[in-house]
Amino acid sequence: MGLFEVRFTEKAGSVVSMLEVVTASRHSVLESVRALLFDLRVQIVRVEAVVQETGLVERFHVAEFDGAAISRRRAAAIRSTVRKALRAKNGAQAA
């Protein structure tokens, strides 16, 4: 794993999906991801954070603002946008 990993999991039969961000460091991405999801009009239903030996796992249980399930195409776009934003933020901090 690099500095972070982003996964999107759809729960069968559920409106809520899970966006999981795993970071090698124990620095939270909660505020960055929260703001980004708000801009993308994605509702955060619940957030969990678990500290592990290898880093931090943050799970964002999400749905569309209108309460609908997130489609596969939209999930891929959200995952990609979160990855790009975290890469850009990480690059800015390294500079």
Describe this structure in words.
The chain is α+β, with helices and mostly antiparallel strands. It has a single domain (4-94), classed as Alpha-Beta Plaits (2-Layer Sandwich). It contains 2 helices and 4 strands. The longest helix has 23 residues, at 72-94. The protein is globular.
Quick recap:
The protein is an alpha+beta fold and 95 residues long.
List key phrases describing it.
alpha+beta; 35% helix; Alpha-Beta Plaits; 2 helices; 4-stranded antiparallel beta sheet; globular; 95 residues
Supply Rg: 13 Å
**Sheet with most strands:** 4 strands, antiparallel
Q: Compute the number of helices.
A: 2
- The CATH topology is Alpha-Beta Plaits
Derived structural class: alpha+beta
CATH architecture: 2-Layer Sandwich
- Overall number of strands: 4
Strand ordering within the main sheet: 1-2-4-3
| Beta-strand residue fraction | 35-45%
Measured between the Cα atoms of the first and last residue, the distance is 21 Å
What is the 3D form? globular
Supply the CATH class: Alpha Beta
Share of residues in helices: 25-40%
- Model regions low in confidence, pLDDT < 50 over at least 5 residues: none
SSE arrangement:
Blueprint: E1 4-10, E2 17-23, H1 30-39, E3 42-52, E4 55-64, H2 72-94
Antiparallel strand pairs: 1-2, 2-4, 3-4
Helix pairs in contact: 1-2
